[in-house]
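User: Please fill in residues for this 137-position structure.
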């Protein structure tokens, strides 16, 4: 059985601001679901995994949620980097080429979450373990 990501959650101080960021940068859709202040995220029609957006239980500066870093597969990393800044995100590492894998940009979303966006090379095999080095994929 593969060990694929089945679900992801974005914790936010301001959910409306976070929704606007991810809608504007990646075109994701959000549907209210479950308890108040909780949304289901669809990254593309019929996509899995599905995600969730909800308020942090505690402030990020305190003992609030800290999670692991994810990278989002994108078609044009330069366009995404521009959209990140245009929608209030902060580029923490400009786009750079990882040989045999693709070009990665690292950023903070509007909620202070660290995220990556990767434009994979056409020749990169997604099932190649070397394409999944720590902090890369």
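Assistant: Residues filled in for all 137 positions:
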């Amino acid at each position: 059985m593969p060990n694929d990501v089945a679900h992801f959650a974005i914790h936010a101080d301001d959910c409306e601001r976070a929704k606007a960021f991810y809608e504007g940068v990646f075109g994701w859709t959000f549907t209210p679901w479950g308890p108040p202040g909780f949304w289901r995220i669809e990254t593309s029609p019929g996509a899995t995994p599905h995600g969730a957006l909800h308020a942090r239980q505690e402030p990020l500066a305190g003992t609030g949620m800290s999670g692991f870093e994810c990278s989002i597969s994108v078609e044009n990393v330069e366009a995404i980097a521009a959209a990140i800044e245009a929608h209030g995100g902060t580029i923490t590492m400009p786009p750079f080429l990882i040989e045999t894998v693709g070009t990665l940009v690292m950023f903070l979303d509007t909620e202070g979450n660290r995220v990556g966006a990767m434009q994979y090379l056409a020749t990169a095999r997604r099932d190649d373990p070397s394409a999944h080095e720590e902090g890369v994929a």
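For context: The first helix runs from residue 15 to 26.
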